[in-house]
Amino acid sequence: MIRGAYVVLAGLFILTPLMVVCVVAFTSASFVSFPTPGFSLRWIIKVLADPAFMRPLANSVLLGLAAAVSAAFLAVPAALALARGGFRGAAEIEAFLLSPLSLPALILSIALLFYFSRLGMGAGFIGLLVGHTVIVLPYMLRTVLAVARGADPALEEAAFVLGADPWRSFLHVTLPILRPGIVAGALFAFLVSFDEVAVALLMSTVSTMTLPVAILNHVANNYDPAIAAISLIKIVLVVAVLVALELGFGLDRLMLSRRRP
Predict the structure, then answer these.
(1) Whole-model pTM over 0.85
(2) Is the N end or the C end of the chain the one with fewer CB atoms within 10 Å?
(3) Which residues pair with 39 in a beta bridge?
(4) pLDDT tens digits along 101-155
(5) Contact 67, 225 (CB under 8 A)
(6) Is 27 helix (H, G, I), strand (E, B) or coil?
């Protein structure tokens, strides 16, 4: 009874701000107010037709996908080496690769800004991609590493006995085993990149501006329901990704849970 009430209250505490945003997005007023005087699609239509929001939204989606793919290419071989190598210093290397989780994003963004300046590179998509890859790499590494450590090495040995070379064994045996961890890590990586602000604030340009930066810029100069409308679009996009993954793979398997008979 008490546990159920606690869960309901915690859920309401988390969801109530989102529900307020969704309601305000459909307001007919010219300013943010709650409760709303009436309902209208004017702000949703305005945001969808505004390049100041749609271009950063496209940049955020592209950057999130690119960061997830880049992190996968780095995390998969690192996870396999850490899970099976048994070499000296593996624990220290793992801690180093996971260290961005404890490093403030603002400090990382300032360091990247100075680093790229020393290399003669200005802010742009490459800097954003590098920064976001560093930030999301630990999420990808932890999920893939969990699967790699739980995998049975006898499956790869059986593939070698049957005549498969290392590349075929990786493609047809290892990669399917790691797929739940890769997909789950990619999901976390995309969502973290999609909502990241600090690196994008310092490393983006006008043409590579991401959606969180565009929202901050709009809030600094305006106080209208357009912010609620673009926030609603973000919520719908994230929910759509989760639903697609649930239908395609099942979130319980992606979260590495094991079904018990």
Answers:
(1) no
(2) C
(3) 27
(4) 888 878 888 888 888 778 777 667 888 888 889 889 998 988 888 888 877 777 7
(5) no
(6) strand
